[in-house]
């Protein structure tokens, strides 16, 4: 395999100086090798440096003339020794070839363009354009003046080739240990997957149940996609709604609340969920209805929607990884430990935690990881401990704590594989060949 070839070569050699040459020598597809290098770089098995080379390639028009001859040569060959009428010559040739070829052949003084007759001025000519195009195609060195002439005729175009030079990284080993990026049956047995098959959610479960005030800017239409049809939800658990209303208006469980008039019509509004934490709120509420509390570990991976500007690291829709642990006596240290272990298993050891504010968690932390491609720290998720104002109205016991984290799927993937534009991973501009060439995540059921 290509990965073994890279690691095995570096075991005995200091550097792979050119990934393109390395791939060609071993009959490996360079795109496949590029994906492997990005993965090994993400795990810090190798350190990779970009290589860029400019080269000239034939345009579609150039490829046609490299095969069939230049337009001027086609015109010359279409003229018999006695000559030919302009009308008949035009009928023999493609319109674009006729127009360009007549102009170039006349400029080269190959033909005489009379009013009634087109004749050859010389007996033999050499098709230098076809010869130059074939030399460009073969990668031969061409005189700059001749390249410029082909460029002006739009028969060639510049192309940037991208590759890598590779050295051993700080985590190098002759063989890569397979991290827990492939799901196994044991992985899944430790966590329960939450049902996330509802892209449309009510504001109550998306915001209010999470102790997010109704005046919060995130609930504005500038940040949220609200539905017109159906515009409101039909059913909510009324006794729980009253408890949520009370903690918003007057507080409780050690909180003063927000001190405003909570409005049911705001909670009823339907929207495209802004986070899968809306599903977490439903699951914790159901857990709170049990007579005897049972510790739980939940996870989900699904689509969320945000009404925000699209750029290299943001999309209006993306995938969120959600996880939470609900048990007695949990602390912030447990959360930090889980996150460090989680990302280390994905090959990301450079993490930073920054204090943050969330209406539903206290304390709260933003999670940052260093992006080797962008050469900067990138926010990859949010985390915290759910507040009593959220948990106690659900009916969960007072000593029960919940640690939770929400991560975008695309950003950690960008960091792991060195992708610098999120639109290369998800959306209408994605390169489908990457999906076809990369391996599937296989679920081990033994």
TrEMBL record:
Similarity annotation: Belongs to the class-II aminoacyl-tRNA synthetase family. Phe-tRNA synthetase alpha subunit type 2 subfamily.
Record domain Aminoacyl-transfer RNA synthetases class-II family profile: where: 295-439
Lineage: superkingdom: Eukaryota
Name of the molecule in the record: phenylalanine--tRNA ligase
Cofactors: Mg(2+)
GO cellular component: cytosol; phenylalanine-tRNA ligase complex
GO molecular function: ATP binding; metal ion binding; phenylalanine-tRNA ligase activity; tRNA binding
Substrates-to-products reaction catalysed: tRNA(Phe) + L-phenylalanine + ATP = L-phenylalanyl-tRNA(Phe) + AMP + diphosphate + H(+)
GO annotation terms (biological process): phenylalanyl-tRNA aminoacylation
InterPro entries: aa-tRNA-synth_II, aa-tRNA-synth_II/BPL/LPL, Phe-tRNA-synth_IIc_asu, Phenylalanyl-tRNA_Synthase, PheRS_DBD3
Keywords: Aminoacyl-tRNA synthetase, ATP-binding, Coiled coil, Cytoplasm, Ligase, Magnesium, Metal-binding, Nucleotide-binding, Protein biosynthesis
CDD domains per the UniProt record, alphabetical: PheRS_alpha_core (cd00496)
Alphabetical list of Pfam families matching this protein: PheRS_DBD3, tRNA-synt_2d
């Amino acid at each position: 395999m290509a990965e073994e070839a890279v690691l095995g070569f570096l075991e005995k050699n200091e550097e792979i100086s050119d990934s393109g040459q390395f791939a060609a020598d071993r009959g490996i597809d360079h795109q496949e090798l590029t994906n492997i290098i990005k993965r090994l770089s993400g795990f810090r098995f190798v350190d990779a440096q970009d290589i860029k080379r400019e080269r000239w390639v034939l345009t579609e028009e150039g490829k046609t003339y490299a095969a069939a001859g230049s337009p001027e040569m086609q015109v010359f060959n279409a003229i018999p020794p006695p000559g030919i009428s302009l009308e008949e010559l035009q009928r023999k040739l493609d319109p674009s070839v006729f127009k360009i070829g007549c102009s170039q052949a006349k400029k080269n003084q190959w033909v005489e363009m009379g009013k009634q007759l087109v004749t050859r001025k010389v007996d033999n000519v050499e098709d230098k354009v076809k010869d130059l195009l074939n030399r460009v195609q073969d990668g031969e060195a061409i005189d700059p003046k001749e390249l410029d002439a082909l460029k002006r005729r739009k028969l060639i175009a510049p192309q940037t080739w991208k590759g890598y030079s590779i050295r051993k990284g700080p985590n190098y080993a002759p063989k890569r240990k397979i991290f827990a990026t492939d799901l196994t049956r044991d992985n899944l047995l430790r966590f329960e997957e939450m049902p996330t098959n509802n892209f449309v959610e009510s504001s109550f479960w998306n915001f209010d149940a999470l102790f997010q005030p109704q005046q919060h800017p995130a609930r504005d239409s500038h940040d949220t996609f609200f539905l017109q049809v159906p515009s409101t939800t039909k059913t909510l658990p009324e006794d729980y709604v009253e408890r949520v209303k009370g903690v918003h208006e007057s507080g409780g469980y050690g909180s003063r609340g927000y001190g405003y008039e909570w409005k049911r019509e705001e909670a009823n509004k339907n929207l495209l969920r802004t986070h899968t934490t809306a599903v977490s709120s439903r699951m914790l509420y159901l857990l709170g209805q049990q007579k005897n509390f049972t510790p739980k570990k939940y996870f989900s991976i699904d689509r969320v929607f945000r009404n925000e500007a699209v750029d290299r690291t943001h999309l209006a829709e993306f995938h969120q990884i959600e996880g939470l642990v609900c048990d007695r006596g949990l602390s912030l240290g447990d959360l930090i430990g889980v996150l460090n272990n989680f990302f280390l298993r994905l090959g990301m050891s450079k993490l930073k935690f920054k204090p943050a504010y969330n209406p539903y968690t206290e304390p709260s932390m933003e999670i940052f990881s260093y992006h080797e491609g962008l050469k900067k720290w990138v926010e990859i998720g949010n985390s915290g401990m759910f507040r009593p104002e959220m948990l106690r109205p659900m009916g969960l016991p007072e000593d029960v704590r919940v640690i939770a984290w929400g991560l975008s799927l695309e950003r950690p993937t960008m960091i792991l594989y060195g992708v610098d534009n999120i639109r290369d991973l998800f959306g209408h501009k994605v390169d489908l060949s990457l999906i076809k060439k990369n391996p599937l995540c296989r679920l081990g059921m033994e």
